[in-house]
Amino acid sequence: MFDIKWIRDNPEKFDAKLAARGLPPQSAELIALDEARRAHVTKLQEAQARRNAASKEIGAAKAAKDEAKANALMAEVAALKDQLAQGEAAERDLDAKLRDALSVIPNLPLDDVPLGKDEKDNVEVRKVGEPPKLAGINKPLQHFEIGERLGLMDFATAAKISGARFVVLKGALARLERAIGAFMLDLHTTEFGYTENVVPLLVRDNAFYGTAQLPKFEDDLFFTDPRPSDFEDRTMKLVADTVRQTLGRGDRSFSRAEVDALVDKFAKNAASAFMMANHWATTDYEETSPGATRISASRFGLIPTAEVSLTNFVREEILDEAKLPMRLTAQTPCFRSEAGAAGKDTRGMIRQHQFTKVELVSITTPEESLAEHERMTACAEEVLKRLGLPFRTLLLCTGDMGFASQKTYDIEVWLPGENTYREISSCSVCGDFQARRMNARYKPKGAKETRFVHTLNGSGLAVGRTLVAVLENYQQADGSVVVPEVLRPYMGGLAKIEKAA
């Protein structure tokens, strides 16, 4: 999400950065939406000022016993109230249009991000380690061949239960996956200063909105179906009905626009008080305009990464600068529909609907975010160094960056079975892009005003792909797999994984 004031002041720069991402200019359209909204707000303020002045004049007219003038003023005030109710509804509509337009625009790349169209234009930053010489192996096996020959990787059973893009790991491979995750968490928490967390896997739409999965990438996520019997829906209906019934009593009549405005206002206040609704309650409980993005309050979604849960820790918070940086980690299952991956990596564990990942998230100040990005990337790289796995680090070009990213490093691990490098981590600095969507701020020491935090996220690492890399890089000619030394304490001292009896 962007600061519309910055776009007004820097339209050429904004459009140039979008062009670097291969997008058309959009500043003129956004500025036009903002100007319409601001002009409308000015008219509302003028109407409010006139209503207040006319209300005072009523008392003066009555004191002067000028009933005709008093009646005329009362009629004017009543008309202004109706006009204001309609105007406030129109203001919400204009706000929603601007917010929706801003919400689907990706973050702007930093100046040092290379220009490019796709992954072919990414720039290699460094390469660590050499592909292993696998003694006695002429053609290295891919991980799924190794796992199936060991009798410990079962795609058929997983497909019977859940369909394609799932796996059942058994015995020593199940333990190996657990060992890899535990090793990563121990490294990040004991040596790198990250705090481990156990987080919700099911989150509300507003959490997805905060980290920018919504509204643009809804098709990539798994959602529960909203249920009309949910507590929120029943509560909001009760609130709305009560307000309408109350307004229907008494001598004074109310216009439909005025009733709807009061219901809307009361319902939102009730939602805030009784259900601890957050900053996005405007869209949580009511679609504010025809065609506006609807952020549901009654459905859950499965997280595609723990970034969603961890980053939303600071949503609607004002942090003390002394507590920054916050460094958070969690190991979770991740769930992705892989909507755009038809035909890609159909065999094996590389691209699955469910996989395990250790996530790293940092919350910091604008001044420290770039240094924190380098640090986070180094933490992810260290996992591969300790495991003895060859890798390379790439700086992604403008055409290959993620939606919320200002700058991204991808770490790719060597897979002998594929004879290529494959992504195993992506570390991104997002600037204040997510913070603005979440209203996440901090108060600098000695300052009166708050500032938006900067957020960063990275894989530290994808556990399943790390298991894939271990199998392929440590495969032996007899079909066994050597367990890397750093993992053996987590494997009960087991040094080699052999075919199940």
From TrEMBL:
EC assignment: 6.1.1.11
BP terms from Gene Ontology: selenocysteine biosynthetic process; seryl-tRNA aminoacylation
Record CDD domains: SerRS_core (cd00770)
Residues binding L-serine: T305, A306, E307, R336, E359, N457, S459
Highest taxon listed in the record's lineage: Bacteria
Matching Pfam families: Seryl_tRNA_N, tRNA-synt_2b
Coiled-coil blocks: 44-90
Keyword ATP-binding: yes
Record-listed ATP binding positions: R336, S337, E338, E423, I424, S425, S426
Entry GO MF terms: ATP binding; serine-tRNA ligase activity
UniProt subcellular location: Cytoplasm
GO CC field: cytoplasm
Keywords, alphabetical: Aminoacyl-tRNA synthetase, ATP-binding, Coiled coil, Cytoplasm, Ligase, Nucleotide-binding, Protein biosynthesis
Residue ranges annotated for the Aminoacyl-transfer RNA synthetases class-II family profile domain, each copy included: 142-484
UniProt cross-references to Gene3D superfamilies, sorted A to Z: Bira Bifunctional Protein, Domain 2, Serine-tRNA synthetase, tRNA binding domain
Reactions the enzyme catalyzes: tRNA(Ser) + L-serine + ATP = L-seryl-tRNA(Ser) + AMP + diphosphate + H(+); tRNA(Sec) + L-serine + ATP = L-seryl-tRNA(Sec) + AMP + diphosphate + H(+)
UniProt cross-references to PROSITE patterns, sorted A to Z: AA_TRNA_LIGASE_II
Assembly and binders: Homodimer. The tRNA molecule binds across the dimer.
Function: Catalyzes the attachment of serine to tRNA(Ser). Is also able to aminoacylate tRNA(Sec) with serine, to form the misacylated tRNA L-seryl-tRNA(Sec), which will be further converted into selenocysteinyl-tRNA(Sec).
Family: Belongs to the class-II aminoacyl-tRNA synthetase family. Type-1 seryl-tRNA synthetase subfamily.
Swiss-Prot/TrEMBL domain comment: Consists of two distinct domains, a catalytic core and a N-terminal extension that is involved in tRNA binding.
Stated name of the protein: Serine--tRNA ligase
